[in-house]
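Reviewers of the previous submission asked for a worked example of the structure-prediction workflow described in the proposal, so we include one complete record here. The input consisted solely of the amino acid sequence. No template or homolog information was supplied to the procedure at any stage.
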Amino acid sequence: MKPFFFIAILSHILCLVSCEKKQLNSNNTNVMKANSLAEELLQIEKDRLDAINQLDTTQYKKWLNPEFEMIDSNGKLINVSALIQQLKVRISAGTLEKHFTKSTKVKLFNEQRVAVVQGIYTIEKPQNKGIVVLTMRYSDVYAKEQNQWTLISSQFSRIRNSKI
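From that input alone, the workflow returned the following structure tokens.
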């Protein structure tokens, strides 16, 4: 009876170890895929900022979902056409703002088909022979459809008198 008991326990332990290894391998694969997707989204954010800084409406619109809406730091709701129009006004006025982000984090949801990108968004704009710096917290929501990420929503909250 003792050898049977020993074999039963040993086979149970081997099964647990084997199952645990499969789970670890699966988790490692998911982490690598999540890191890759996060890097892809950070690159899209960088490319989108480059398009804004270069006043390139065609390139900028490339990442916007047709249903995109943004809530600006004043609480105003802005759709795709209004956002592109704002960029065109800057182009015609020759406004050379600089847009950049920092402290950016990516969170993936819904089987890695939805992402929230959050961080600090800064705009430096020339005004009255000086530069005005606007600093905001932002959240961008992306959805992956047909193997391509598109921006579906953005929200900005102004940070006043802050040393970030």
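The chain has a mean pLDDT of 83. We consider this example representative of the routine output the project will generate in years two and three.
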